[in-house]
């Protein structure tokens, strides 16, 4: 055991001695600041690692730290000749990054808070190691952005694009088919272009890989742009062809056989074939040797812009102290903002009558219950008027918006991911509501219009709601948030959109109506 300990200490000394003396102090300070950043943004890193490991869409991110490490290691000799120098503007950049994290965390926007956590690591390098090191490692530092899981926001658009391409290919191949939103009806059965079929998994991975290839294999920006556009287009087209192939095979071999073949073929093997084909086609235009990867912008120190930006050098110890103060300030601000919570009534209820609409027993053709995790109050009722029109009204009241109780979070609202209902297509958008058509059991269709309310804001935009909630948290102002979903079933001779429109007209000022239900007026 003593011999093992001696070997380990000797190995540690050799490792330290291999690091140039001018780098040892700055790296120690950077390590301390990074540890503090990880501690402050621990929840974001915990969530990101969980997504990388457990969600197949983000499995490729596990390779990003290895890629960045390789890119930095490949330029180790050039970096050893640079003397790190703390840089005051880098501290300003660190403060901006922490503000991004704070905004995202308080508003409950995971992508923004996670982006802020990654930006804090990047900008701390500029603050503690200086502009020269930042410029020399510019691409590896920028590539760290791919640590942030993103892409869920693209799923609905990709579903619609894929569905349109699939129906075109299906009809071209001689198979009679009818499309309704993301559902395609064929003689073999009804097919859904579900979220898993949107192709977002491979599109996001292709963007990350394509960016790396553009940097390592091309010098020409024109070739880089052409390659990236081709990579994205090929990813979307290949996914649509795969989905069409499943439908086409099912016509002769049956749905079970087609689904089995799809599950075997559709995976990283499919992605590898796409990438292999793309690289084989692009190989002849590669104009940069991947082994010839030196520091980025080697001529930067001689340029005027670099000399102008270099103003602001400071001692490393002072920079580390200022970085610690920034982290402490944002930690306090985050704690104070997280505790902001509005007072809400102990009990609320839907009004018995709205003009000529009366509250009746809630009896949908197929069970439908919106999702509002963490809401303080949830109301669901059905209104009927003298003309026989029906609308279903759901209202959720929140005393605060945070992780686990966000009105506009993914999976919240009209479509509960755990139910049998499926998203069909977007409805006609309004300034004060977002509309979605839902579908279940291949025949029941429902239109749901969702509005959000906080303060005097009434909107159908999740982004506008989050901005308003974020501003309230930043200014330590407590205001409740509401989500209203007005929905109707499509019935023979009864259009859901018309029923909802007539009900809204009877309500009058929708914002004031919601406030009265929540007893805020």
From TrEMBL:
<dbReference type="GO" id="GO:0008233">
    <property type="term" value="F:peptidase activity"/>
</dbReference>
<feature type="transmembrane region" description="Helical">
    <location>
        <begin position="225"/>
        <end position="245"/>
    </location>
</feature>
<feature type="transmembrane region" description="Helical">
    <location>
        <begin position="160"/>
        <end position="179"/>
    </location>
</feature>
<keyword id="KW-0645">Protease</keyword>
<dbReference type="Pfam" id="PF11984">
    <property type="entry name" value="DUF3485"/>
</dbReference>
<dbReference type="GO" id="GO:0005886">
    <property type="term" value="C:plasma membrane"/>
</dbReference>
<dbReference type="InterPro" id="IPR017540">
    <property type="entry name" value="Exosortase-1"/>
</dbReference>
<feature type="transmembrane region" description="Helical">
    <location>
        <begin position="124"/>
        <end position="148"/>
    </location>
</feature>
<protein>
    <submittedName>
        <fullName>Exosortase A</fullName>
        <ecNumber>3.4.22.-</ecNumber>
    </submittedName>
</protein>
<keyword id="KW-1003">Cell membrane</keyword>
<feature type="transmembrane region" description="Helical">
    <location>
        <begin position="199"/>
        <end position="218"/>
    </location>
</feature>
<feature type="transmembrane region" description="Helical">
    <location>
        <begin position="85"/>
        <end position="104"/>
    </location>
</feature>
<feature type="transmembrane region" description="Helical">
    <location>
        <begin position="21"/>
        <end position="40"/>
    </location>
</feature>
<keyword id="KW-0472">Membrane</keyword>
<dbReference type="InterPro" id="IPR014263">
    <property type="entry name" value="Methanolan_biosynth_EpsI"/>
</dbReference>
<feature type="transmembrane region" description="Helical">
    <location>
        <begin position="265"/>
        <end position="286"/>
    </location>
</feature>
<keyword id="KW-0378">Hydrolase</keyword>
<feature type="domain" description="Methanolan biosynthesis EpsI">
    <location>
        <begin position="320"/>
        <end position="508"/>
    </location>
</feature>
<dbReference type="Pfam" id="PF09721">
    <property type="entry name" value="Exosortase_EpsH"/>
</dbReference>
<dbReference type="InterPro" id="IPR026392">
    <property type="entry name" value="Exo/Archaeosortase_dom"/>
</dbReference>
<keyword id="KW-1133">Transmembrane helix</keyword>
<dbReference type="GO" id="GO:0006508">
    <property type="term" value="P:proteolysis"/>
</dbReference>
<keyword id="KW-0812">Transmembrane</keyword>
<feature type="transmembrane region" description="Helical">
    <location>
        <begin position="319"/>
        <end position="336"/>
    </location>
</feature>
<feature type="transmembrane region" description="Helical">
    <location>
        <begin position="52"/>
        <end position="73"/>
    </location>
</feature>
<dbReference type="InterPro" id="IPR019127">
    <property type="entry name" value="Exosortase"/>
</dbReference>
<dbReference type="InterPro" id="IPR013426">
    <property type="entry name" value="EpsH-like"/>
</dbReference>
